[in-house]
From TrEMBL:
<dbReference type="GO" id="GO:0070475">
    <property type="term" value="P:rRNA base methylation"/>
</dbReference>
<dbReference type="Pfam" id="PF04055">
    <property type="entry name" value="Radical_SAM"/>
</dbReference>
<dbReference type="GO" id="GO:0005737">
    <property type="term" value="C:cytoplasm"/>
</dbReference>
<dbReference type="InterPro" id="IPR007197">
    <property type="entry name" value="rSAM"/>
</dbReference>
<keyword id="KW-0808">Transferase</keyword>
<dbReference type="InterPro" id="IPR058240">
    <property type="entry name" value="rSAM_sf"/>
</dbReference>
<keyword id="KW-0698">rRNA processing</keyword>
<protein>
    <recommendedName>
        <fullName>Radical SAM core domain-containing protein</fullName>
    </recommendedName>
</protein>
<dbReference type="GO" id="GO:0030488">
    <property type="term" value="P:tRNA methylation"/>
</dbReference>
<feature type="domain" description="Radical SAM core">
    <location>
        <begin position="194"/>
        <end position="427"/>
    </location>
</feature>
<keyword id="KW-0408">Iron</keyword>
<keyword id="KW-0949">S-adenosyl-L-methionine</keyword>
<dbReference type="GO" id="GO:0046872">
    <property type="term" value="F:metal ion binding"/>
</dbReference>
<dbReference type="GO" id="GO:0008173">
    <property type="term" value="F:RNA methyltransferase activity"/>
</dbReference>
<dbReference type="InterPro" id="IPR004383">
    <property type="entry name" value="rRNA_lsu_MTrfase_RlmN/Cfr"/>
</dbReference>
<keyword id="KW-0963">Cytoplasm</keyword>
<dbReference type="InterPro" id="IPR027492">
    <property type="entry name" value="RNA_MTrfase_RlmN"/>
</dbReference>
């Protein structure tokens, strides 16, 4: 997941170096050995394809450092905050406009700028997103003016993604791997349901800067934001590829790779396209955007969007959340929860979804359950208890099923609306917290607070 604010340190290299700025995931320290090698860090905004290619070459030829111990006290002091910018600029291989990067009003203006009527824009929009067409080429634009189609062929790009692979888990969950124009890979998940509630889980970034300690995607660090077109087309592809197999895709969750609120501009634009009633026509109540807790962007989202909000909470004390979710060192629990209380007063019949990944011996005690009840007081909410999905190199273990039930029952008895969310697709690394491929270069594992070291050893 993403952050409205990036932690970064700039390092001056040799004068003839191509690389002058690097970006660290949350959790890096400027004093850590890993940080002294700038190739092990993640790029900030770059301006040439050559530099980006060099980064990928170097990134795949460096040693692994998966167990670096970083003191929590070191992690925030050394970083500057760079608000919301894309992490990489990708060279455009052509001058063609990407159609799915425009909302409807922008598309209408663009069509008119080429001498065509607004009605042609609506017909094009419906063929991109509606009428069970989901066009990927001008040849699929049946019913449109021949000259208009010719103009589109010359000036517009229909696809922002290329399909690489579809992997099917034993429970029917589909993990789709997409290749981007710069050859980076993102993952999207389609979760079918017998009830007809078929969900597409979309990514908002390549990697993630949040460095949540229990999340496999967080091991990657952040490479760049996705464009609005790259976000929207994940949903378009899901419908185009899988509707005939699993049925209509009815729900969207922004719970894939990345922190959506760190890419807030493109996410809000993508939401606008997804809910348009002449296109994909998802109900705002069936789209949920998940955040690790970027407070300024959270406020903006609640003011500008009617889509659902999920907050990845995962701890009931600042001590634990500072460790497993380093963003908490900037936006503490009290600030996050008080912001929700204030903002939700203006949202009619709106409930926030709290996600709570249960980690054995870390956040699953009955004391945690009692604190959680107190924390959510005054906030219209539902709570999803999520079993931790294991991955290579993880120091955490899932809470036992019977203990999860006990935890759930305590919350329910206290008056909370609470659900146990089963894992889906975990045998193919398609479940919550399992997406992505960190490769050899990984964000650091933070030092375990002394009081939890024994618990982790026992749970192992």
């Amino acid at each position: 997941m993403e952050i409205g604010c990036m932690w970064m340190r700039r390092i001056r290299l040799r004068p003839n170096s191509l690389i002058t700025n690097v970006t660290t995931p949350i959790g890096f320290s400027s004093s850590s050995p890993a940080f002294r090698d700038p190739i092990l860090c993640i790029f900030r905004k770059r301006k040439t394809h050559v530099q980006l290619s060099l980064f990928h070459f170097l990134r795949t030829h460096r040693r692994s450092f998966t167990t670096a111990a970083v003191s929590p006290s070191d992690t925030l002091a050394s970083f500057d905050c760079a608000e919301g910018a894309d992490i990489a600029e990708i060279s455009n291989k052509s001058s063609k406009v990407v159609l799915k990067g425009m909302n409807y009003s922008e598309l209408e203006k663009w069509v008119q700028s080429h001498g065509y009527r607004p009605g042609q824009a609506l017909m094009l929009w419906k063929r991109l997103y509606g009428d069970n067409i989901w066009a990927h080429h001008s040849d699929e634009l049946e019913g449109l003016n021949k000259d208009f189609k010719s103009m589109l062929s010359e000036n517009a790009e229909f696809k922002a993604l290329s399909l690489k692979e579809i992997i099917t888990a034993s429970d029917g969950t589909k993990k789709i791997l997409f290749k981007l124009e710069d050859d980076l890979i993102i993952e999207t998940v389609v979760i079918p349901s017998d009830s007809g509630r078929n969900t597409v889980c979309v990514s908002s970034q390549v990697g993630c800067a949040m460095n949540c300690q229990f999340c496999f995607t967080g091991r990657m660090g952040l490479t760049r934001n996705l464009t609005a077109a790259e976000i929207v087309e994940q949903a378009v592809f899901a419908r185009r590829l899988l509707t005939s197999e699993v049925g209509s895709i009815t729900n969207v969750v922004f719970m894939g790779m990345g922190e959506p609120f760190q890419n807030i501009d493109n996410v809000i634009k993508a939401l606008d396209i997804m809910v348009h009633d002449q296109g994909l026509h998802f109900s705002p109540r069936k789209i949920t955007v998940s955040t690790s807790g970027l407070v300024p962007q959270l406020r903006r989202f609640l003011k500008e969007s009617n889509c659902g909000l999920a907050v990845s909470l995962n701890a009931t004390t600042d001590e634990v959340r500072n460790w497993i979710m380093p963003i908490n060192r900037k936006y503490k629990l009290d600030l996050l929860l008080q912001t929700l209380r204030e903002e939700l007063r203006f949202k009619h019949k709106y409930k926030v979804l709290f996600e709570y990944v249960m980690l054995a011996g870390v956040n699953d005690s009955m004391e945690d359950a009692r604190r959680l009840v107190d924390l959510v007081q005054g906030i219209p909410c539902k709570i999803n208890l999520i079993s931790f999905n294991s991955h290579c190199g993880s120091q955490f273990r899932p809470t036992r099923d019977e203990k999860m039930v006990e935890f759930r029952n305590f919350l329910a008895k206290a008056g909370c609306t609470v659900l146990l969310r089963p894992s889906r697709g975990d045998d193919q690394m398609a479940a919550c917290g399992q997406l992505g491929n960190p490769g050899l270069v990984r964000a650091p594992v933070l030092r375990v607070p002394e009081k939890f070291q024994t618990a982790l050893e026992v749970s192992a």
